[in-house]
């Protein structure tokens, strides 16, 4: 390769002597910023001489990889900061931090220069280079954790090296530096003051909005008691109690009887889901649920989960109905929509707290407390309710959709204020401290109401514009354009519009032809 690509390698060497300015210019034009993001001072420097030539760089990487292999031969867990890691690296194999900072860019340049095929074969090497760049670039906000076993239950040594990012502001900082105006929007940013603390920025404006609906199309409920009136919870003290698990199973069985089409159930973790399903199987609850709906389970394997999701959608479409058992932090909860018949009800069994014995989580909690003044309990509660809100939002994907949201855990009643505004304001006091029987009765009444005829015209004037409002906004839009053409400032028109500024901004999406807009509305 060296002889056949000598000219390419020499050309690359010349460019590297001049520095990484071309990379900086490419980033300025690129809509997607590279990862890891390099500091500005690093981009202005030339690549160190000991890794400019390809053969020198490969030898440098080999030494670094050999060092990592030696460090991973441990029998106990080790945690250390990035400066400590770099000091040990320098003392043992005499590798300085500066060339490490250029590893990611240098490897990318080499692969591009040689026009290598099968890029996926070099992915492990790219991960090592990215690790080298990150560990040598940031002296705070990261922690290295070396564990001798892949999991706590493992008995055969299989060491794992974690580079944990403790400071989310590191990833957000390049966005702030590059763009002058940033809008952070989501349906689960509650409480609003937590994100500015974690991302280390001062917001100019903070607003929380409710949903404008022509009818109450979603029913949030908090179930705290089972059919035997005993409290239900997934807390450590009661999570394996047979009575507690039986009440969870009875809740799911009762909803499987009355809810049409699809039901999505979220558990706090894969381990808890597996143990719960095992107990339900022994109690015969799963066999009874099978009489009403198909049961599918999400697994950590992406291919198996995709197949289960496809089968779930098929069962919902052909009238069989199905229940998808998922995990609050899994693939289904993060990015799969269950609109219309795919999700008529979502049930959160337990509060999805993180595993508090995780060393990475404990290190992050300590970092947030020391640097941003965020208490451990505040962050854990915020994170759990954010994931619970994400799960609930899977079933409402439009103003014509409807669904039932069930939070099954007594602790949700205390954390109601941490739910997003659009959910918390729709929870009635009579729907907070429910037993299983009361929740089923409330759900029946809701489904009966949703079965009544509802026309698209009923949205007009509430969650959508009437023809008169649409015409008025288009006329105002044309008047503003005429003012701009005459060189006038259209601010007065916006001021007269007052509270309708957001509405006027939405008119940008419409064409200038009023007749075409009216036809679109009628359609």
Automatic annotation (TrEMBL):
Its main location: nucleus. Its cofactor is [4Fe-4S] cluster. One of its GO terms (molecular function) is hydrolase activity, acting on acid anhydrides, in phosphorus-containing anhydrides. Residues 481-515 are annotated as: Disordered. CDD domains: SF2_C_XPD (cd18788). The keyword Membrane does not apply. It catalyses: ATP + H2O = ADP + phosphate + H(+). Residues 270-414 form the ATP-dependent helicase C-terminal domain. Residues 481-499 have a biased composition (Basic and acidic residues). The keyword Lyase does not apply. One of its GO terms (biological process) is nucleotide-excision repair. PANTHER family: DNA REPAIR DEAD HELICASE RAD3/XP-D SUBFAMILY MEMBER (PTHR11472), GENERAL TRANSCRIPTION AND DNA REPAIR FACTOR IIH HELICASE SUBUNIT XPD (PTHR11472:SF1). NCBIfam families: rad3. This is DNA 5'-3' helicase. It comes from Talaromyces marneffei PM1.
């Amino acid at each position: 390769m060296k002889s056949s690509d000598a000219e390419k390698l020499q050309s690359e060497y010349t460019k590297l002597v001049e520095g990484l300015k071309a990379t900086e210019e490419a980033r300025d034009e690129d809509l997607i910023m590279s990862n890891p993001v390099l500091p500005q001072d690093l981009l202005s420097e030339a690549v160190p001489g000991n890794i400019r030539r390809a053969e020198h760089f490969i030898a440098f990487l080999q030494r670094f990889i050999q060092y990592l292999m030696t460090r991973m031969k441990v029998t106990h867990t080790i945690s250390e900061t990035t400066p400590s890691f770099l000091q040990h690296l320098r003392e043992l194999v005499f590798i300085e931090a500066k060339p490490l900072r250029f590893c990611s860019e240098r490897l990318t340049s080499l692969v591009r220069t040689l026009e290598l095929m099968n890029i996926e074969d070099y992915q492990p090497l790219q991960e090592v280079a990215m690790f080298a760049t990150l560990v040598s670039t940031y002296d705070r906000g990261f922690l290295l954790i070396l564990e001798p076993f892949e999991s706590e239950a493992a008995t055969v040594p299989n060491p794992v090296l974690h580079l944990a990012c403790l400071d989310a502001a590191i990833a957000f900082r390049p966005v702030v530096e590059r763009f002058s105006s940033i809008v952070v929007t989501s349906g689960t940013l509650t409480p609003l003051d937590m994100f500015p603390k974690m991302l280390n920025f001062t917001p100019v404006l903070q607003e929380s909005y409710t949903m404008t609906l022509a009818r109450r199309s979603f029913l949030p409920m908090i179930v705290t008691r089972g059919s035997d009136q005993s409290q239900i919870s997934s807390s450590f003290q009661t999570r394996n109690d047979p009575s507690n698990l039986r009440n969870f199973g009875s809740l799911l069985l009762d909803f499987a009887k009355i809810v049409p089409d699809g039901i999505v159930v979220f558990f706090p973790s894969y381990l808890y889901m597996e143990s719960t399903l095992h107990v339900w199987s022994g109690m015969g609850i799963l066999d009874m649920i099978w009489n009403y709906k198909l049961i599918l389970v999400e697994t950590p394997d992406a291919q198996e989960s995709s197949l289960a999701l496809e089968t779930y959608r098929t069962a919902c479409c052909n009238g069989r109905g199905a229940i998808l058992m998922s995990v609050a932090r899994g693939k289904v909860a993060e990015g799969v929509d269950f609109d219309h018949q795919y999700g008529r009800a979502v049930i959160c069994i337990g509060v999805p707290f993180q595993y508090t014995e995780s060393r990475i989580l404990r290190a992050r909690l300590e970092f947030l407390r020391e640097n941003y003044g965020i208490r451990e309990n505040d962050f854990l509660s915020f994170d759990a309710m954010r994931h619970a809100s994400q799960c609930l939002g899977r079933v409402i994907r439009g103003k014509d959709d409807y669904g039932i949201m069930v939070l099954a855990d007594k602790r949700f009643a205390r954390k109601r204020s941490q739910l997003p505004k659009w959910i918390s304001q729709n929870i009635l006091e009579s729907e907070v401290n429910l037993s299983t029987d009361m929740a089923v009765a409330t759900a029946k009444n809701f489904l009966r109401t949703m079965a009544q005829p509802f026309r698209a015209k009923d949205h007009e004037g509430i969650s959508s514009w009437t023809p008169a409002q649409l015409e008025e906004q288009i006329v105002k839009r044309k008047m503003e354009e005429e003012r701009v053409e005459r060189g006038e400032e259209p601010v007065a028109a916006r001021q007269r519009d007052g509270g309708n500024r957001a509405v006027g901004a939405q008119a940008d999406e419409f064409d200038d032809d009023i007749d075409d807009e009216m036809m679109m509305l009628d359609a």
